[in-house]
Write a structure and sequence with these properties.
Layout: E1 9-17, H1 24-32, H2 47-51, H3 75-78, H4 91-105, E2 118-124, H5 130-152, H6 158-170, H7 187-196, E3 202-205, H8 211-224, E4 230-237, H9 242-250, E5 275-283, H10 284-290, E6 296-305, H11 317-330, E7 343-345, H12 352-366, E8 377-380, H13 383-386, H14 393-407, E9 409-410, E10 429-431, E11 436-437, E12 447-454, E13 458-465, E14 485-491, H15 494-510, H16 516-526, E15 532-538, H17 541-556, E16 562-564, E17 568-571, E18 580-583, H18 595-600, H19 602-614, H20 623-626, H21 635-645, H22 648-668, E19 675-678, H23 682-689
Helix pairs in contact: 1-14, 4-7, 5-6, 11-12, 15-17, 19-22, 22-23
InterPro entries: Ac_transferase_dom_sf, Acyl_transferase_dom, Acyl_Trfase/lysoPLipase, Ketoacyl_synth_AS, Ketoacyl_synth_C, Ketoacyl_synth_N, PKS-FAS_Synthase, PKS_assoc
Keywords: Phosphopantetheine, Phosphoprotein, Transferase
Pfam families: Acyl_transf_1, KAsynt_C_assoc, ketoacyl-synt, Ketoacyl-synt_C
């Protein structure tokens, strides 16, 4: 037996298309906003036929995570002949589109990129889709139908039967030499290699739900062996037909409630999801040397089979544990000494047996809960929001987890009530149901993991870590989509400002696809100089439209200065005087304080990282009192954490840290006070803000 080559692999590019999102930034925004993107399919799917059917063709629900109108890909932009599209497997063209985007995101789309040492390996399963269904109908069903009609109606005119056959054929996608390549499964990666001139390996892996992680593992092996310098890997499941729902219904896997609720009471199964995600991978040393932006680092991937379990499709505890243990070995972590990750993206399908087995497997590897009773590992599943993308499920989980590490944020999972009997209270795990800042003591690398357990008994586990700090100082990453946006307008008079409100509302309505962030940026760029100013804090497009309408009405009525509690402020003259910052004392702290701010501004979160590492011998990190886990806490411990926040030790510390975090945000925005004032223990914050202690950050 020879040692397996090892080495850290950097994720330097990502692209995806999942329900409600056509980019990783949009995908991350939906996750952090806890948006459920599950819904009904397009009318062409023909849901009523199956919902109203009897026997094996009946399905209890047609709800799922569908791509909808974003399903389309422009053949001309992809360099594909339009005549080769209709009737082919649609996934192939979307995979090409997303592969191009992943290379561009990695900065590898220009002339400096070496295509001879770049390959593509994708996870994909060949289920029934529009293209191969049409081939069966062209080759069998048309002639079979005509023959049956001739038998049942022996006196029928052959010309009429021929016409029936021709009419049926006219309703099908074409089948010809142009279409044929698009029906060969492995042409998916071949097409990508052809159009992008990639001359490394290209092939598909079908391991059901584990396909994406195993494609990443294969790409890592290629990179570690030195045969390739850049690899594209991920999973594709861009089209789901009703017939696939029929199969999963026969397996007893579909949710009858129409929702996916992993680890939750009432969770009764899964729903399928369309989507695809591709990651650009590079050896970490090479990525650092090139100055690449690194989303996260993959430390290791492990795989296993269930062997002879309780059934062909039943999960097996020992098999899942073995995949996790092999991933730890691949990452160079000794058995029995595995550090518990701060986040685990679970397989979490919402099928009760699978959820229980997964919790037991994690318990078996990572042990029991700490003596304090405080859980330290957030678990979740993006399937609660987009459904189960089967071969692309692992890609969705990897992209979500890489972005969680990149933005130092613990993403939520949709759940109302934890399912009793999971045994999760005995583990280091808790189900994370809120978007929360991911606090880690300064100098401690955040670590995460992704599970993907495929039906048929193939299991995979990936271990990820946050990227090392770049050698050259760079601005910390800030999410491009926030929960709220600030929209600013200016004009010479209140009437002119009202007109600006109306114009912006009309422009936003004309550009219905523009995200709120783009509207805010456009408004700022178009803002005119003038003494009359308007500021609107909006949560979404509808909120912005309503607030602009209210503001315009007040301005048109002659009110030049007003403030609405909903987040609208107007002024008709610039404010005079100087700027003062007042820092409060103890009593101003509360659980959950600054949570959204810490998610949006890394400078603020860094102060809480600093706080957690200040006294490492504490039995529980102080941030646990500010951001306690939202589930699995015993009531006594929850009360203890809340009481500590207002105790002598953490009370003054929390106010000081929060004050400095807010000050860091003000500095990021370019706001500098002329005077600082502190109340009670807030005087320490004011002194620090004034530079009395030296420095302006945690290093002071």
């Amino acid at each position: 037996m020879t040692d397996t080559p090892s080495g850290d692999i950097a994720i330097i590019g990502m692209a995806c298309l999942f329900p409600g999102a056509d980019s990783p930034a949009g995908f991350w925004a939906n996750i952090c906003a806890a948006r459920e993107m599950v819904g009904a399919p397009l009318p062409a799917w023909g849901a009523e036929r199956y919902l109203n059917a009897e026997g094996p063709t009946h399905i209890p629900t047609a709800r799922g995570g569908y791509l909808g109108e974003s399903f389309a890909a422009d053949p001309a932009r992809l360099g594909v002949m339009p005549s080769s599209v209709d009737g082919s497997e649609p996934d192939q063209f979307l995979a090409l589109r997303i592969a191009q985007a992943a290379l561009a995101d990695a900065g590898a789309a220009g002339p400096d990129h070496d295509p001879t040492r770049t390959g593509v390996i994708l996870g994909h399963s060949t289920y029934l889709h529009r293209g191969n269904a049409a081939v069966v109908q062209h080759g069998v069903v048309l002639d079979q139908t005509r023959a049956i009609l001739a038998q049942l109606l022996p006196d029928a005119d052959p010309a009429v039967l021929d016409r029936v056959r021709a009419e049926m054929a006219a309703q099908l996608p074409p089948f010809n030499a142009d279409i044929a390549p698009g029906l060969v499964p492995n042409v998916m990666t071949g097409r990508i290699a052809n159009r992008l001139d990639l001359r490394g390996p290209n092939y598909l892996i079908d391991a059901a739900c584990s396909s994406s992680l195993l494609s990443v593992q294969a790409a890592m092996i290629e990179l570690r062996a030195g045969r390739s310098d850049l690899m594209l890997a991920g999973g594709v499941n861009a089209s789901i037909s009703a017939e696939v729902y029929m199969v999963f219904n026969q397996l007893g896997a579909l949710s009858k409630t129409g929702h996916v609720r992993p680890f939750s009471e009432g969770g009764d199964g899964t729903l399928l999801g369309e989507g695809l995600g591709i990651l650009a991978l590079k050896r970490l040393d090479d990525a650092q040397a090139a100055g690449d932006r690194i989303y996260a680092v993959i430390k290791g991937v492990g795989q296993s089979s269930d062997g002879k379990g309780a059934g062909l499709l039943a999960p097996r505890l020992e098999g899942e544990m073995l995949a996790i243990e092999r991933a730890l070995l691949d990452a160079g972590i000794e058995a029995g000494k595995a550090p518990v990750p701060g986040l685990i993206e679970a397989h979490g399908t919402g099928i009760p047996l699978g959820d229980r087995t997964e919790i037991s497997a994690l318990h078996g590897v990572f042990g029991s809960r700490a003596a304090t009773g405080l859980p330290g590992t957030a678990i979740g599943s993006v399937k609660s929001m987009i459904g189960h993308c089967i071969p692309a499920a692992g890609a969705a989980g990897l992209i979500k987890t890489a972005l969680a590490l990149y933005h130092r944020t613990l993403p939520p999972t949709l759940s109302e009530t934890l399912r009793p009997g999971l045994g999760i209270e005995q583990t280091p795990l808790y189900l994370n149901t809120k978007t929360r800042p991911w606090i880690a003591a300064t100098g401690t690398a955040r670590r995460a993991a992704v599970n993907a357990f495929g039906f048929g008994g193939i299991n995979a586990h990936a271990i990820l870590e946050e990227a090392p700090a770049p050698k050259a100082a760079t601005a910390a990453p800030t999410p491009t989509h926030w929960s709220h946006e600030l929209v600013l307008l200016a004009a010479a008079t209140p009437a002119a400002l009202a007109q600006r409100c109306r114009e912006l509302a009309a422009a936003a309505e004309r550009h219905a696809d523009a995200p709120l962030a783009a509207i805010a940026a456009w408004a700022a760029a178009q803002a005119k100089v003038g003494p009359c100013r308007l500021a609107v804090v909006a949560a979404d497009r509808a909120d912005l439209a309503a607030k602009l309408d209210k503001a315009a009405a007040r301005l048109e009525g002659g009110q030049g200065r007003f403030r609405l509690r909903s987040g609208v402020m107007a002024g008709d003259t610039p404010l005079g005087g100087r700027l003062a910052f007042l820092f409060p004392g103890e009593g101003a702290q509360y659980q959950g304080m600054l949570s959204e701010l810490l998610v949006a501004f890394p400078e603020a979160r860094a102060w809480f990282d600093f706080w957690d590492g200040l006294f490492p011998d504490r039995d529980m990190p102080p941030s646990a009192s500010v951001f306690p886990p939202p589930t699995t806490l015993q009531p006594e411990l929850a009360d203890t954490l809340a009481a500590r926040l207002f105790g002598l030790e953490l009370g003054s510390e929390s106010v000081f840290v929060a004050g400095q975090a807010l000050l860091a945000v003000m500095r990021r925005l370019g706001l500098s006070p002329d005077i600082v004032v502190g109340h009670s223990s807030g005087e320490h914050s004011a002194l620090a803000a004034a530079g009395v202690f030296g420095g302006t950050g945690t290093e002071a």
